[in-house]
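Ticket #4471: structure export looks truncated?
Reporter: QA, pipeline team
Priority: medium

Steps to reproduce: submit the single chain below to the structure queue and open the exported record.
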Amino acid sequence: MSTTPESENPDNPRARIQELPHLPPLAPVAQQLLLELNREEIDINRLCRTIEQDPGLTARLIGVANSAYFSQREPIYDLSTAIIRVLGLNLVKSLSLGIALSAPFDTRACPAFPLDHYWCQAMLTSTLASQLASQANLEPGANEYLFLGGLLHNLGDLILANCFPKQVCAVLRQAEASPATPLEALQRDIIGFRASEAGVILGHKWHLPERILHIISHHHDYHYRGEGWRAVCLIGYCSLLVRKEYCTMESEGVPDLITSHNVLDLPENAVSAALERLRSKSEQTLSLARTLAGRGA
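Actual output as written to the record:
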């Protein structure tokens, strides 16, 4: 019995994504930032030189430092000051890589795709996960990549909006009409594969760290028990919490939220306190999301 090769199977999501002519290569600055991610010690001057090769990225990070989210009394004019006075090396490394990896995707052909919402979800998920990390009994070294994992966990959504704008608009319309249907189920029905699959395929092409690929691939899967599963579960839990808090999450996600909370065994008071801190900066976070999306305040 003969079988159709993977590359010739039109129903194979990996083949469909990899054969797209406009699937972008990894930008040189992003390649260098990935190298910085793997260094044990971060050199501020080397990091600044790397980022400053991309003027748009530099301007965006300075804009982040000047955003209402960080409440600076005096304006920041250069990257090194933004790092030293406001953002810190680890946050800048994660933000710069998150922005650089998302930069190639143009979602303007998909007007239903809310880019500000995408960045707000990413930033809130990262922030919430970082705040709960000390309570989650994470694997050794997880704190090093947790924030970046939160920023990139929904990277596949950008890929789909860039590559399949009409289909994504149809998915979002259907999601609004049928809020009880999981979004990834609609993506598979209408587009042929899920955002997480697209994110992992591109992540392999770009040679993203395996721990980040685990988050992109499995943050929706609360039965995942592979490498770094507690960090993966925490990102998924925080993503659901953010959706519930800010997006009137449909009822289909509530069982997953309860399951992941029980698995992580997080103290209720710690979760409540972290959510309250997010609520207190909701307007500032939206302004920050606009800056990350490149739309200003």
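Status: closed, not a bug. The export was complete when the record was re-opened. Leaving a note from the reviewer for reference: Residues 115-132 form the longest helix (18 residues).
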